[in-house]
Amino acid sequence: MTDGTEQGRAEDGLRGRTALVTGASRGIGRRIAERLAEAGARVSGVGRSEVDLRDLARVTGGTSLVVDLTDDVALWDALDEWVDEHGGPPDIVVNAAGTFSLESLATETLASFDRGLAVNVRAPFIVMRALLPGMLERGSGLFVNVGSVAGRKALPGNSAYATGKYGLRGLHEVLLEEIRGTGVRATLLEPAATDTELWDPLDPDADPSLPSRDQMLRTEDVAEAALFVSTRPDHVRIPLLQIERA
Protein backbone atom coordinates (compact mmCIF):
# COMPACT_ATOMS: atom_id res chain seq x y z
CA MET A 1 0.00 0.00 0.00
CA THR A 2 1.34 3.44 -0.93
CA ASP A 3 0.94 6.64 1.05
CA GLY A 4 -0.50 9.82 -0.44
CA THR A 5 2.90 11.17 -1.43
CA GLU A 6 3.82 8.02 -3.32
CA GLN A 7 0.45 7.87 -5.06
CA GLY A 8 0.70 11.50 -6.06
CA ARG A 9 4.17 11.00 -7.51
CA ALA A 10 2.91 8.12 -9.63
CA GLU A 11 -0.24 9.82 -10.86
CA ASP A 12 1.07 13.34 -11.49
CA GLY A 13 4.84 12.99 -11.61
CA LEU A 14 5.09 12.81 -15.40
CA ARG A 15 3.03 15.86 -16.26
CA GLY A 16 4.84 17.82 -18.94
CA ARG A 17 7.24 14.96 -19.70
CA THR A 18 7.54 13.30 -23.09
CA ALA A 19 7.79 9.54 -23.52
CA LEU A 20 8.51 7.35 -26.53
CA VAL A 21 7.52 3.67 -26.29
CA THR A 22 8.46 1.05 -28.88
CA GLY A 23 6.27 -2.00 -29.33
CA ALA A 24 3.32 0.13 -28.27
CA SER A 25 0.81 -1.52 -30.60
CA ARG A 26 -0.08 -4.21 -28.09
CA GLY A 27 1.01 -6.23 -25.07
CA ILE A 28 3.50 -4.86 -22.56
CA GLY A 29 4.42 -1.87 -24.71
CA ARG A 30 0.82 -0.74 -25.09
CA ARG A 31 0.07 -1.02 -21.38
CA ILE A 32 3.23 0.91 -20.49
CA ALA A 33 2.29 3.65 -22.95
CA GLU A 34 -1.19 3.88 -21.46
CA ARG A 35 0.12 3.95 -17.89
CA LEU A 36 2.67 6.68 -18.60
CA ALA A 37 -0.05 8.74 -20.27
CA GLU A 38 -2.33 8.25 -17.27
CA ALA A 39 0.47 9.75 -15.16
CA GLY A 40 0.58 12.84 -17.34
CA ALA A 41 3.23 12.05 -19.96
CA ARG A 42 2.80 12.96 -23.61
CA VAL A 43 3.33 9.58 -25.22
CA SER A 44 4.46 8.67 -28.72
CA GLY A 45 3.86 5.03 -29.59
CA VAL A 46 6.19 3.30 -32.03
CA GLY A 47 5.31 0.16 -33.97
CA ARG A 48 4.17 -1.34 -37.27
CA SER A 49 0.40 -1.41 -36.86
CA GLU A 50 -1.09 1.91 -37.91
CA VAL A 51 -4.56 0.85 -36.77
CA ASP A 52 -3.42 -0.15 -33.28
CA LEU A 53 -1.24 2.94 -32.86
CA ARG A 54 -4.05 5.20 -34.00
CA ASP A 55 -6.27 3.64 -31.34
CA LEU A 56 -3.53 4.09 -28.73
CA ALA A 57 -3.16 7.76 -29.68
CA ARG A 58 -6.92 8.19 -29.32
CA VAL A 59 -6.81 6.70 -25.81
CA THR A 60 -3.71 8.55 -24.63
CA GLY A 61 -4.01 11.80 -26.55
CA GLY A 62 -0.52 11.14 -27.88
CA THR A 63 1.09 10.60 -31.26
CA SER A 64 2.31 7.68 -33.34
CA LEU A 65 5.43 6.67 -35.24
CA VAL A 66 4.44 3.93 -37.65
CA VAL A 67 7.67 2.18 -38.57
CA ASP A 68 9.06 -1.33 -38.92
CA LEU A 69 11.70 -1.66 -36.19
CA THR A 70 13.70 -4.05 -38.37
CA ASP A 71 14.10 -1.33 -41.03
CA ASP A 72 17.22 0.44 -39.76
CA VAL A 73 17.01 3.48 -42.03
CA ALA A 74 13.28 4.03 -41.52
CA LEU A 75 13.62 3.74 -37.74
CA TRP A 76 16.53 6.15 -37.52
CA ASP A 77 14.79 8.64 -39.81
CA ALA A 78 11.60 8.47 -37.72
CA LEU A 79 13.54 9.13 -34.53
CA ASP A 80 15.41 12.05 -36.11
CA GLU A 81 12.11 13.54 -37.26
CA TRP A 82 10.67 13.17 -33.75
CA VAL A 83 13.65 14.97 -32.22
CA ASP A 84 13.49 17.77 -34.81
CA GLU A 85 9.76 18.22 -34.23
CA HIS A 86 10.05 18.29 -30.43
CA GLY A 87 13.30 20.21 -30.17
CA GLY A 88 15.17 17.40 -28.42
CA PRO A 89 14.97 13.77 -27.36
CA PRO A 90 12.16 12.37 -25.18
CA ASP A 91 12.41 12.54 -21.41
CA ILE A 92 11.60 8.81 -21.19
CA VAL A 93 12.35 6.13 -23.77
CA VAL A 94 10.94 2.63 -23.31
CA ASN A 95 12.33 -0.17 -25.46
CA ALA A 96 9.41 -2.57 -25.10
CA ALA A 97 9.25 -4.10 -28.59
CA GLY A 98 10.11 -7.76 -28.71
CA THR A 99 9.61 -10.96 -30.62
CA PHE A 100 9.33 -14.38 -29.03
CA SER A 101 9.50 -17.94 -30.29
CA LEU A 102 10.16 -21.34 -28.76
CA GLU A 103 12.47 -23.60 -30.73
CA SER A 104 15.39 -25.80 -29.75
CA LEU A 105 18.89 -24.96 -30.92
CA ALA A 106 18.82 -28.12 -33.06
CA THR A 107 15.77 -26.96 -35.01
CA GLU A 108 15.83 -23.14 -34.87
CA THR A 109 15.89 -21.48 -38.29
CA LEU A 110 18.37 -18.79 -39.27
CA ALA A 111 15.54 -16.49 -40.35
CA SER A 112 13.85 -16.72 -36.94
CA PHE A 113 17.18 -16.26 -35.16
CA ASP A 114 18.01 -13.17 -37.21
CA ARG A 115 14.59 -11.64 -36.61
CA GLY A 116 15.01 -12.17 -32.86
CA LEU A 117 18.29 -10.29 -32.91
CA ALA A 118 16.87 -7.53 -35.10
CA VAL A 119 13.90 -6.79 -32.84
CA ASN A 120 15.29 -7.65 -29.41
CA VAL A 121 18.81 -6.18 -29.73
CA ARG A 122 19.41 -4.22 -32.93
CA ALA A 123 16.30 -2.03 -32.68
CA PRO A 124 17.00 -1.01 -29.04
CA PHE A 125 20.58 -0.24 -30.05
CA ILE A 126 19.39 2.05 -32.85
CA VAL A 127 16.92 3.77 -30.52
CA MET A 128 19.57 4.36 -27.87
CA ARG A 129 22.25 5.34 -30.40
CA ALA A 130 19.93 7.86 -32.05
CA LEU A 131 18.62 9.47 -28.85
CA LEU A 132 21.45 9.15 -26.33
CA PRO A 133 23.64 12.00 -27.70
CA GLY A 134 20.82 14.50 -27.23
CA MET A 135 20.14 13.25 -23.72
CA LEU A 136 23.81 13.57 -22.82
CA GLU A 137 23.90 17.11 -24.19
CA ARG A 138 20.78 17.99 -22.19
CA GLY A 139 22.03 16.21 -19.08
CA SER A 140 18.84 14.25 -18.43
CA GLY A 141 16.71 11.39 -19.69
CA LEU A 142 15.69 7.86 -18.85
CA PHE A 143 15.90 4.64 -20.84
CA VAL A 144 13.67 1.77 -19.70
CA ASN A 145 14.75 -1.41 -21.46
CA VAL A 146 12.33 -4.31 -21.21
CA GLY A 147 14.32 -7.52 -20.97
CA SER A 148 13.22 -10.90 -19.66
CA VAL A 149 13.97 -13.64 -17.18
CA ALA A 150 15.36 -15.36 -20.30
CA GLY A 151 18.09 -12.74 -20.34
CA ARG A 152 19.61 -14.10 -17.13
CA LYS A 153 18.41 -17.71 -16.94
CA ALA A 154 18.89 -20.36 -19.63
CA LEU A 155 15.61 -22.04 -20.55
CA PRO A 156 15.09 -24.85 -23.09
CA GLY A 157 13.70 -23.73 -26.42
CA ASN A 158 14.96 -20.18 -25.97
CA SER A 159 17.93 -20.27 -28.33
CA ALA A 160 16.92 -17.20 -30.35
CA TYR A 161 14.99 -15.39 -27.63
CA ALA A 162 17.64 -15.81 -24.93
CA THR A 163 20.38 -14.67 -27.29
CA GLY A 164 18.44 -11.48 -27.91
CA LYS A 165 17.61 -10.80 -24.29
CA TYR A 166 21.11 -11.64 -23.02
CA GLY A 167 22.36 -9.28 -25.71
CA LEU A 168 20.01 -6.54 -24.55
CA ARG A 169 21.22 -6.99 -21.01
CA GLY A 170 24.84 -6.66 -22.13
CA LEU A 171 24.00 -3.53 -24.10
CA HIS A 172 22.22 -2.11 -21.06
CA GLU A 173 25.18 -2.82 -18.77
CA VAL A 174 27.52 -0.92 -21.09
CA LEU A 175 25.03 1.94 -21.23
CA LEU A 176 24.98 2.13 -17.42
CA GLU A 177 28.74 2.55 -17.27
CA GLU A 178 28.84 5.16 -20.01
CA ILE A 179 26.09 7.38 -18.55
CA ARG A 180 27.36 7.31 -14.97
CA GLY A 181 27.45 10.88 -13.66
CA THR A 182 25.87 12.41 -16.76
CA GLY A 183 22.32 12.90 -15.47
CA VAL A 184 21.00 10.26 -17.89
CA ARG A 185 19.59 7.14 -16.24
CA ALA A 186 18.62 3.65 -17.38
CA THR A 187 16.69 0.72 -15.96
CA LEU A 188 16.47 -2.85 -17.21
CA LEU A 189 13.13 -4.46 -16.40
CA GLU A 190 13.34 -8.26 -16.34
CA PRO A 191 9.84 -9.71 -16.04
CA ALA A 192 9.09 -13.39 -15.80
CA ALA A 193 6.58 -14.89 -18.26
CA THR A 194 3.88 -12.31 -18.96
CA ASP A 195 0.46 -12.99 -20.44
CA THR A 196 0.45 -11.31 -23.86
CA GLU A 197 -0.57 -12.18 -27.42
CA LEU A 198 2.94 -13.55 -28.03
CA TRP A 199 1.85 -16.73 -26.24
CA ASP A 200 -1.26 -17.29 -28.37
CA PRO A 201 0.37 -19.54 -31.03
CA LEU A 202 1.91 -21.71 -28.29
CA ASP A 203 -1.29 -22.31 -26.27
CA PRO A 204 0.59 -22.52 -22.94
CA ASP A 205 -2.42 -23.86 -21.03
CA ALA A 206 -2.28 -27.00 -23.16
CA ASP A 207 1.48 -27.56 -22.73
CA PRO A 208 2.62 -28.78 -19.30
CA SER A 209 6.19 -27.71 -20.04
CA LEU A 210 5.08 -24.05 -20.18
CA PRO A 211 3.66 -21.81 -17.45
CA SER A 212 -0.10 -21.55 -17.63
CA ARG A 213 -1.58 -18.13 -18.21
CA ASP A 214 -2.86 -17.88 -14.64
CA GLN A 215 0.74 -18.35 -13.44
CA MET A 216 2.00 -15.47 -15.57
CA LEU A 217 2.43 -11.80 -14.79
CA ARG A 218 -0.07 -9.36 -16.27
CA THR A 219 0.92 -6.55 -18.59
CA GLU A 220 -0.19 -4.04 -15.94
CA ASP A 221 2.35 -5.54 -13.52
CA VAL A 222 5.18 -4.62 -15.87
CA ALA A 223 3.58 -1.26 -16.66
CA GLU A 224 3.46 -0.38 -12.97
CA ALA A 225 7.16 -1.20 -12.69
CA ALA A 226 7.90 1.06 -15.65
CA LEU A 227 5.85 3.84 -14.07
CA PHE A 228 7.66 3.37 -10.76
CA VAL A 229 11.13 3.84 -12.22
CA SER A 230 9.91 6.72 -14.41
CA THR A 231 8.62 8.67 -11.42
CA ARG A 232 11.68 8.41 -9.17
CA PRO A 233 13.54 11.63 -8.32
CA ASP A 234 16.33 12.51 -10.73
CA HIS A 235 19.01 11.55 -8.22
CA VAL A 236 17.69 7.98 -7.87
CA ARG A 237 19.12 5.28 -10.15
CA ILE A 238 17.49 1.85 -10.50
CA PRO A 239 19.80 -0.09 -12.83
CA LEU A 240 17.84 -3.35 -12.68
CA LEU A 241 14.36 -4.38 -11.59
CA GLN A 242 13.41 -8.06 -11.73
CA ILE A 243 9.70 -8.86 -11.64
CA GLU A 244 8.26 -12.24 -10.68
CA ARG A 245 4.84 -13.69 -9.99
CA ALA A 246 4.35 -14.44 -6.28
Explained architecture:
A seven-stranded parallel beta sheet has the order 3-2-1-4-5-6-7, sandwiched between helices. The radius of gyration is 17 Å and the shape is globular. With 246 residues, the protein is α/β, with parallel strands linked by helices. Helices cover 44% and strands 15% of the residues. The protein has helices at residues 4-12, 27-38, 50-60, 72-86, 110-138, 159-179, 219-230; strands at residues 18-22, 42-47, 63-66, 92-95, 141-146, 184-191, 240-243. The two termini are 16 Å apart. Helix 2 (27-38) crosses helix 7 (219-230).
Question: Averaging pLDDT over every residue, what do you get?
Answer: 93
Which range does the strand content fall in? Answer: 15-25%
- The number of helical segments is 7
Shape: globular
Number of strands: 7
Instruction: Provide the structure class.
Output: alpha/beta
Task: Tell me the radius of gyration.
Answer: 17 Å
Query: What string gives the helices and strands in order?
Result: HEHEHEHEHEHEHE
Low-pLDDT windows of residues: none
- The strand order across the widest sheet is 3-2-1-4-5-6-7
Comma- or semicolon-separated keywords:
alpha/beta; seven-stranded parallel beta sheet
Short structural description:
The chain is 44% helix and 15% strand. It is of the alpha/beta class and 246 residues long. The two termini are 16 Å apart.
